[in-house]
Write a structure and sequence with these properties.
mainly beta
């Protein structure tokens, strides 16, 4: 059986631009793409913490170190500058691979600069 698992996550990134008339996609600081392992043109699921909207698009490379998180095209209706996003990429693997796999979790500050990474999330307390 193939399972879809979380491959990578950029947690609580701040939207810097929303460009309705751009071709589409989400531009992400290239450094964050490299650190997270999200590839340019890879499908990403985006969860807007501010308004609850969830949408799917693809990543494009933004300037390294710029902190850019630009939601473009139709997706610009789902986010505005200042919103916090969780950007996730998923991958498929078999059950044996899934048992050993650990995602790359990338955490940023309010300027989308790296604060730390991890490969597991703490257990949620009751």
């Amino acid at each position: 059986m193939q399972l879809n698992v979380l491959k990578a996550k950029i947690h609580r990134a701040t939207v810097t631009h929303a460009e309705l008339h751009y071709e589409g996609s989400c531009a992400i600081d290239g450094r964050l793409l490299d650190i997270s392992g999200i590839r340019e043109y890879e499908q990403v699921h985006i969860y807007n913490v501010n308004n609850g909207h969830r949408f799917i698009t693809y990543a494009i490379r933004g300037e390294e170190g710029s902190g850019v998180i630009s939601v473009n095209g139709a997706a610009a209706h789902r986010a505005q500058p200042g919103d916090l996003l969780i950007i996730c990429a998923y991958g498929s693997c078999d059950e044996a691979e899934a048992a050993k796999f650990k995602p790359t979790l990338v955490y940023v500050d309010r300027h989308n600069q790296l604060t730390h990474t991890n490969h597991s999330m703490p257990a949620q307390a009751a």
